[in-house]
What we know:
Layout: H1 3-12, E1 17-22, H2 29-42, E2 46-49, H3 59-66, E3 73-75, E4 89-95, H4 101-117, E5 121-129, H5 137-142, H6 152-164, E6 169-173, H7 184-193, E7 198-201, H8 207-216, E8 220-223, H9 235-238
Parallel strand pairs: 1-2, 1-8, 2-3, 3-4, 4-5, 5-6, 6-7, 7-8
Helix pairs in contact: 6-7, 7-8
Amino acid sequence: MNCYKNILKAxxxxxxxxxxxxxxxxxxxxxxxxxxxxxxxxxxxxxxxxGSQMQCSVNDAVAFLKNRVAIPVILFPGNALQFSENADAxxxxxxxxxxxxxxxxGQHVKAAKMxxxxxxxxxxxxxxxxxxxxxxxxxxxxKTHPLSIExxxxxxSTALAGEQLGLRLIYLEAGSGAKCPVSQTIIAATRAEIxxxxxxGGGIKTRQEMLSAYEAGADIVVVGNVLEDNPYYIxxxxxx
Length: 240
Ligand code: 1GP
């Protein structure tokens, strides 16, 4: 399976994609079973696994999921230690909205040799943190400031620079549990300038918010927080 090719194919066919984000730190085995059941019932396109806590271990959760779901399991790592050989792919996130070298390239240097040896598909991703109405774990841990929603030009230029550097996906992130998801204006302005697939996440709680993101030009919408209490809430997004 080649995840990137499948994403490009979906974009070409104008098929919107949906990813469920699971933070293993916030799940016991019963909750993971519920996620599996909900995923196998409502068929999202991907499951992303990761958390922003440094000590978060993803290996067990990835192995558990790989044995039970047919969709790609993609790592969404908070740092270089969050790796599992069992995953199908890894979003190799460079936090291009920030100026903390550790999250721009430092963690990547630490992981580079391990990634080269592994068969996990690498998805180089420009990760852009945008104000979401409250301080996000990403901002706190990376010690970077999110880009201001008042400066959509800066957000667009950051995305464009990421694409020019060769990053193959751009991720507009309002932060997990954001009060306000990334606005349609910002998504549309970014979409108008870049050609690579666009991921949008952070604070998306309703089907309407998901549809707004798609309408503005998101190719992949990511939802995590709102499913944590009840994974079957996936139906809100995928049961038509
Ligand atoms: C966070 O973009 C993801 O990194 C998803 O955000 O948890 O708010 O859905 P939520």
